[in-house]
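Duplicate of #3305? Posting structure anyway:
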């Protein structure tokens, strides 16, 4: 038996979430690696699943948790054996396949990556999908030729998980980072991560002109909707915008003008189904290039029960940084 968060639907069709004991025999049969999950996280998608605010879950009942880190217990997969340290991000886990907000999981070996040497399971989940996505965004800016001499980098949703770690990564690489947030009271927190300037998100969240004053050499956007449209409209000639989230909405009320007249590039960042080599490269760089002291500032450790109670606060934007779930607390 092991402890897990289990999601189901009640008679009215509403999502219920409870901490419960589950028998190992109930684990999914379509996985070939059984793991002990030592730490997980609560991401935005997990918050949606736990609260039922969006149709994230595709199969019922469901154990949420798109991230996990721990050790392999048993394996029928040739690349994994008992005792191996792993990281899991995405692949529909917590949506169509039981996830990692639990003490145990059964997953597919092809979904797992080796945890970098010296990185603890807790550190891996302090980074989690949010930090891994932030690194994919930062790597994409580099791949598109945006360097430290190009100009300011805008990070939207700055006090969230993706934004916080993106600031720490980019500032650590020597970029001048401007943080956009709706929580100006968090300015000291954001500057401690490396932000050179903090601006009110209101400047980006309202409708704006298709072409605006050129400001950004690059953008890491986890907000979407009007914020993304304004960020694109303010990006310098030849600049690059990376889009990885939709906290404000899925719509994109923009014009083609920045792409045609300024050569702006909009790069979509997919962390869920990204190929293994890209995942491994991102995690190796996170292990060696992310300042551990900055990560400690970002992180708050909680237990499984608190993951349920804090999910609504996460969706409401009331949670700063990363929630790391100690599954055995």
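Output from current build:
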């Amino acid at each position: 038996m092991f402890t897990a968060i289990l999601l189901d639907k009640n008679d009215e069709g509403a999502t219920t979430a409870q901490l419960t004991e589950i028998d190992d025999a109930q684990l999914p049969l379509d996985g070939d690696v059984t793991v002990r999950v030592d730490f997980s996280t609560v991401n935005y998608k997990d918050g949606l699943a736990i609260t039922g605010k969006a149709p994230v879950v595709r199969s019922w009942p469901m154990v949420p948790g798109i991230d996990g880190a721990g050790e392999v217990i048993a394996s029928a997969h040739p690349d994994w054996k008992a005792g191996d340290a792993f990281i899991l991000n995405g692949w529909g886990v917590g949506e169509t396949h039981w996830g990692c907000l639990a003490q145990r999981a059964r997953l597919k070996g092809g979904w797992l990556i080796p945890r970098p040497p010296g990185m603890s399971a807790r550190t891996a989940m302090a980074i989690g999908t949010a930090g891994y996505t932030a690194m994919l965004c930062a790597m994409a800016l580099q791949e598109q030729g945006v360097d430290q001499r190009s100009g300011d980098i805008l990070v939207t949703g700055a006090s969230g998980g993706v934004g916080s770690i993106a600031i720490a990564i980019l500032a650590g690489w020597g970029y001048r980072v401007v943080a956009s947030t709706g929580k100006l009271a968090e300015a000291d927190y954001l500057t401690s991560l490396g932000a050179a300037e903090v601006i009110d998100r209101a400047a980006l969240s309202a409708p704006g002109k298709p072409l605006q004053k050129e400001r950004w050499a690059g953008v890491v956007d986890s907000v979407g909707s009007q914020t993304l449209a304004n960020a694109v409209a303010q990006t310098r000639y030849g600049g690059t915008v990376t889009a990885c989230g939709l906290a404000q909405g899925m719509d994109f009320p923009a014009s083609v003008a920045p792409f045609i007249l300024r050569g702006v590039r909009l790069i979509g960042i997919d962390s869920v189904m990204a190929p293994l080599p890209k995942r491994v490269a991102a995690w190796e760089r996170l292990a060696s290039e992310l300042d551990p002291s900055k990560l400690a500032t970002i992180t708050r450790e909680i237990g499984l029960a608190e993951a349920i109670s804090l999910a609504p606060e996460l969706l409401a934007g009331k949670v700063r940084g990363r929630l790391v779930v100690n599954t055995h607390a």
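Confirmed duplicate; merging threads. The mean pLDDT is 95. The two ends are 16 Å apart (CA to CA).
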